[in-house]
Amino acid sequence: MKFIRTEDYYQMSRAAANIISAQVIIKPDCVLGLATGSTPLGIYKQLIDWYTKGDIDFSNVTTINLDEYKALSPDNDQSYRYFMNENLFNHININKNKTYVPNGLELDEKKACDDYNSIINSVQGIDLQLLGIGHNGHIGFNEPSDCFATETHCVDLAQSTIEANARFFDSYEEVPKQAYTMGIKTIMHAKKILVVASGENKADIIKEAFFGPITPKVPASILQLHPDATIICDNDALQKVSELI
Ligand code: F6R
User: Fold this and answer.
1) Which of 29, 113, 163, 173 fits 60 for a cystine, CB–CB 3.0-4.6 Å?
2) For the chain, how far is it from start to end, CA to CA, in angstroms?
3) What is the distance between the alpha carbons of residues 193 and 231, in angstroms, rounded to a whole number?
4) Residue 68: helix, strand or coil by DSSP?
């Protein structure tokens, strides 16, 4: 695993955006695996900026997102499809027909997962997978568990997640209770992995995931086995491992 230390969140975002942009320049028809959450926002902002200046062309890029809430429509502002459109796709010259997010409106779990696996298989491999990391070591919605789930699957959201999300909805009934997520095998098959983390509240999990034992109880720990994984963190996120890297 390669660690890149940056001064702050802004520099972390620029370093990650540089690697993504290099990937697009080297292989204009590449497949990017993308993440939602707060950490990638600075990366997407930087990519939009470079696109606006004419430095990157996304017209031949395909994207595959990690996850989506079950039963949320793409125009619900809490859906990950909405997030990706708002924070990246609407501002660059990507062909939206080649941007994939699990279909939250497909309530048949098997069909939703099979369809997403078929899409993933049809693109012949993810060239670069961007990942954030949860405080408990989750990647995508692969939560701590007794085993690594391999391909796209439906997960029951933790009660704490449902309660935290409740503030974004008019009623508790509307809060998603399940989500579809890419599995660990698919993530591990990406040719390149790019993990981003910022802030001291990620310092403990960075140490546990990347310097502790490999275990499904800390899903991100499996990335220690990936042949080409780069972890970009700011000083705050690396404060518990300074002597180890
Ligand atoms: C997002 C995702 C999640 C986040 C993780 C970190 O698609 O799958 O695993 O990457 O929860 O979220 P932030 O960046 O908000 O700390």
Assistant:
1) 29
2) 10
3) 8
4) strand
Phi, psi of 55 (to 5 degrees): -90, -20
CA distances from 99 to 32, 81, 119, 205, 239 (A): 9, 9, 11, 30, 36
Residue among 68, 127, 143, 234 flagged as catalytic = 143
Domain borders along the chain are 2-244
CATH number of 2-244: 3.40.50.1360
Average pLDDT of span 24-40: 97
| pLDDT at site 88 | 98
Residue 173 among the catalytic residues: no
Tens-place pLDDT, residues 71-81: 999 999 999 99
**Ligand 1 pocket member 132 (CB < 6 A):** yes
Mean pLDDT of the chain: 96
**CB of 221 closer than 6 A to ligand 1?**
no
Q: How far apart are CA 8 and CA 27, in angstroms?
A: 29
Average pLDDT over residues 227-238: 98
Tell which atom from ligand 1 comes closest to the C-alpha of 202. Answer: 16
Token representation of residue 50: 């470079």
Is the CB of 36 inside a 6 Å radius of any atom of ligand 1? yes
**What pTM was estimated for this model as a whole?**
0.97
For the question of residue 138 being annotated catalytic, the response is yes
Q: Confirm or reject: Cβ of 139 under 6 Å from ligand 1.
A: yes
Name every residue whose Cβ is closer than 8 Å to that of residue 150 and which is 6 or more positions away in sequence.
183, 184, 185, 186
Is pLDDT of 117 > 90?
yes
